[in-house]
Amino acid sequence: MKATTQMQARLLELQDLDTRLNQLDHKMRSLPELTDIARLEAQEGGLQSEVVRTETAVGDLQRVVRRAEAAVQQVRDRVTRDESRLAVGTGTAKSLQGLQSELESLARRQGVLEDEQLEVMERVEAAESEAAVASAARDEHLARLTQLRTARDAQLAELTSERDGVASGRDAIAADLSEELLALYERVRAHSGMGAAALVQRRCGACRLELNAVEVGRIRSALEDEVVRCEECGRILVRTQESGL
C-alpha cells in the first residue's frame, strides 16, 4: 500500500486521539461515583420498605389506641350515668346497691383499660421513634445519592465535552487520509487496539520490541511512500527522523 509520508505521519496524530478517546471512555465508565451510586441504589428499596413497615406499625398501633380510648370513654360514660342515678337516689335499696356494685366493677374495669391504653401509647411512642429513625436514614441516603448523581453528571458533562472535541479533531484527520489507508488502520486497531505506532531507534512504538537486522534492512529499503508494518505485532510503522534507519 502507498501513502505519502505526510499522510503516514498523520496516522500518529490519529492514534494519539484514539488513545485519548479510549482513555476518556474508560474514565467515564470508571467514575468512583458510579460504584457508590449503584451500591446506594441497591439499598434504596430496603430503606423505603423499612419506612413503610415502621409507618404501618405506627398506624396500626394508633388504631389500637383509638379503640382503647373509645373503650375507656364508654366506661366513663357508664360511670357518669350510674353516679347520676345513684345521686338522685330513686329506686329500691336493692337497685341502688346494684348501682354501687356496678360502679365498683366499672372502676376496676376502667383501671384495667387505662393501663392497657397507656401501654399501647408507650408502644406508639416507641414505634414513632423507630419510624423517625427509618425516615431519617432514608432521607440521608437519598441526599447522599442526589449528591453523588450531581457529581457524576458534572464529571460526565465535562468528559463528554472533552470527548466531543477530541472526536471532532479525529474526524478532521480521518477525512485527510485515503480510504485505503484509513481502512487498514481501522482493521489493525480493531484487532489489536492500536492501529499505528512510530518506529523509534529501530524499536516498534506499539509492542516495544527491537527490530532485527533483516527487518531493519527491509524497512530501510522500502520507498518513503510504502506503508510498512511491524513483523511482530502487525501495527503500521510510521518512520520518523528518530527511527534509526
In short:
The chain is 77% helix and 5% strand.
Structural class: mainly alpha
How much of the polypeptide forms β-strand, as a percent range? 5-15%
Mean of pLDDT:
92
Query: Quick one: overall form?
Result: rod-shaped
> Using DSSP, what is the number of strands?
4
Indicate the low-confidence ranges by residue numbers.
Answer: none
- How are the strands of the largest sheet arranged? 2-1-4-3
Q: Work out the helix count.
A: 5
Radius of gyration (Å): 42 Å
From N to C, what is the helix and strand string? Answer: HHHHEEHEE
- Please give the largest β-sheet: 4 strands, mixed
Helix content: over 70%
The end-to-end span amounts to 20 Å
Can you characterise this structure?
The protein has 245 residues and is mainly alpha-helical. It is 77% helix and 5% strand. It has helices spanning 5-29, 32-88, 93-176, 179-192, 213-221; strands spanning 196-200, 203-204, 228-229, 236-239. Strands 2-1-4-3 form a 4-stranded mixed sheet. The two termini are 20 Å apart. The mean pLDDT is 92.
Task: Note the main attributes of this structure.
four-stranded mixed beta sheet, 4 strands, 5 helices, rod-shaped, 245 residues, 5% strand, mainly alpha
